[in-house]
Amino acid sequence: MTTGLPKELQGVVPGCKKALHLETLDKSKLGAPFFFVLAQSAERLFQGRFQESLGFATNVLDFCWEKLNTGHWKDVDICWREVFTFGSLFKAICQYGMRDRFNTMDAIKTCDLGLLMGAPVLDNILTRLVAVLQNSARGTTKRPQEQCSTPAVASQVPKRPRTLILPVIDSERKVPRVHCPSLKSFLLNYMRKRQPVIIQSNMEHWPARNHRPWSLDYLRQIAGCRTVPVELGRRYTEETWSQALMTVDEFIDKYIVQKSADVGYLAQHQLFDQIPELREDIRVPDYCCLGDGDEDDIVINAWFGPKGTVSPLHHDPQHNLLAQVVGSKYLRLYAEEVSDCVYPHEGHLLNNTSQVDVENPDLQQFPRFNSAPYLECTLEPGEMLYIPPRYWHYVRSLDVSFSVSF
Amino acid sequence: MGKLYVFGYNGFGQLRPDRSDNFLVHPVELEATEPDGDGDALVAMVTASWSSAAIFAGKTVIMTQGFLNAESHQFRKFETAAVRSSVWTADGLVVVREGGECVQVDPCTGQQLGRWNGPDGAKFTDVVCGESTILALTDTGDVTMLGDVQSINPTPLPVHVGENVKAVCCGKEHSLALTVSGRVFSWGNGSRGQLGHGTTEACNTPQVIEALEGVTMVTIAAGGWHSVSVSACGDLYVWGWNEAGQLGLPTSKHKTGPSDGCTTCTDKEPSVSDMAQQGDNVAEVLVQATPTIVDLPTGQELSKISCGSRHTAALTKEGQLLTWGWGAYGQLGNGQTERCEVPCTVEFFKQRRVTDVWCGPWNVFVQVDK
């Protein structure tokens, strides 16, 4: 019986408790009391008893939250993340159903927390629900107007006067640039040779660089009300570093538009899983099919922040393509062979991170650093940088910047 | 009659089976015993899990409430041989009898379901439980692990502290031991600083908390991810996670959990000076890896402390109750659901004399003098 559910949701949300298939959850892991509360929330939801359902859904979420914070995140049984999604689903529907007390933004935020901390259930129902909620909030089912498709990309992206001081790139140490190499050429000349390279002219077909150019206004339109994780503090290696959750609007207001003393960085976040509309504005580079593993396994991360965000010198195990959509970044690269000159941290948690502050190195503590050869570049909008596996890289944004990594 | 007051999470009727409220923000009375002519029987102790509570009225009468026998809002009352300590585990109710036996009992009937042998025939005095560890203390001052809740091992495993232990307690992932000499040992996961060794590293075997050396502690308590102790001089020491203000230290303006009101949330821009600095007790603190003293607002001395998942309760020698930390389920007893990052006297008990306090994960049980 769908008596309880608001009309707009009936296409997206299952019509009855049975369709949730809660019986497939592992009751022995969840425990009888928890399962009881989860079932109670579901029952009341479909009876339209939103206040009571919300109470139980909140119990579910708070209990799950404690489980997710016990032990190492990766060791937490996935069932807890799945029920966190169920709890978020019930809570969001209740909030939407009680619009005299809550607004649609609250329900959207609930979905986002579920997407951030939960694991998908019912064919990624939260993504589908949040799309309906966003449309309801906008009062329309149409996406924001596309810009006129004038291929003069440079004029579409908001241009800020270049008052920024660009680092002087040593011509001897420049990262080479190449125009759209063939797959074969890229594989043989760069991937196999572990050679960093900047690929130009390979993002011109991206809607984000073309007819739906990304700007702060556009991002606000598409995703302003969506909750995202933001890193606060200069560098993740420092004690003052922390993470916070806020909407994209709040992030832009506090950390991009205002001259905040604090640095806020929407970093290393799978934003495009969370907000499929933005996924449509980017294209996975063809070169990604040359890497190991399935194409479906490619992790796409967003990196969006103000001028001055810093990613300390570190390396990653996989091939990496860093595509610059908006703004510029300064990068410095050190080959794996000179690892002992960059003084990696000891201990298994941070040994992929250097102890050295690249642009202000303590040469007394780290005497070999200045003798290490390196490459550097200023990565401009429309360019993508190939970083080989285990190649050390340091990144600083020179302006408001949005990068996408593959 | 024991006069027991309860507040906090009641989703299973574990505080008041007769009430359907998901939680109680104001203290309400709970009749602990029936008048049976033998005068005032005080509540000896309370032990509460997330979904149930066991109230020991006198030492031989147990009242259990909450989720029992696969049903919610249940109530049972039965008599049993005298109990001196008790804890809920994932499997049920474990008690230590006055005679020193440690047994598992049916929470509906009190029937004995299983039993542990003391190491070398020693008697047990106390039993406590974390997320998956059950620890027991013997009358010889030894700490033993009664095994994983998943597989109750009838032969306890010794935990080596190296000194006579007089009290043990567990958080979700860590354990604390208080020795007869007043030293505090900790072990387990330390990712929130709950071990008090100054790092977020784990520690597999009991290590003394160096920062407390030289101070004699008289009582300890552990919450989900935080630790509390009181010294002989009456000072309150706290360490571990402070995400909801459970340490009584300033918190971030950002919400942490799903249900998290923040009384300190303002429109003020967070600034660099707000970030935690070592030893700076004005700035916000998220993780306190080394014990620090928290001043009490009234300057009173504490007689007992107890911790829930993310909140703390303390009893003063003058019979006042202080609470602080997470409050979304009314577990601070002040009629609010906001978190509180400063120890606050619970108004409701100001005209009364509180004699004991026990915390469940999201609630509190308070005993008051008649």
UniProtKB/TrEMBL annotation, chain A:
InterPro entries: ARM_KDM8_N (IPR056520), Cupin_8 (IPR041667), JmjC_dom (IPR003347). It holds the Pfam family Cupin_8. The keyword Transcription applies. The keyword Oxidoreductase applies. Keywords: Biological rhythms, Cell cycle, Chromatin regulator, Dioxygenase, Iron, Metal-binding, Nucleus, Oxidoreductase, Transcription, Transcription regulation. Residues 273-406 form the JmjC domain. GO terms for cellular component: nucleus. Its main location: nucleus. GO terms for molecular function: chromatin binding; histone H3K36 demethylase activity; metal ion binding. GO terms for biological process: protein destabilization; regulation of gene expression; rhythmic process. PANTHER family: BIFUNCTIONAL PEPTIDASE AND ARGINYL-HYDROXYLASE JMJD5, HYPOXIA-INDUCIBLE FACTOR 1 ALPHA INHIBITOR-RELATED. This is JmjC domain-containing protein 5. It comes from Branchiostoma lanceolatum (Common lancelet).
UniProtKB/TrEMBL annotation, chain B:
Residues 2-361 form the RCC1-like domain. It comes from Branchiostoma lanceolatum (Common lancelet). PROSITE patterns: RCC1_2 (PS00626), RCC1_3 (PS50012). This is RCCD1 protein. Keywords: Repeat. Signal peptide: none annotated. Pfam families: WD40_RLD. InterPro entries: RCC1-like_dom, RCC1/BLIP-II, RCC1_domain-containing, Reg_chr_condens. It comes from the Eukaryota. RCC repeats lie at residues 182-233, 234-318, 319-370. The keyword Plastid does not apply. The keyword Repeat applies. The gene is RCCD1.
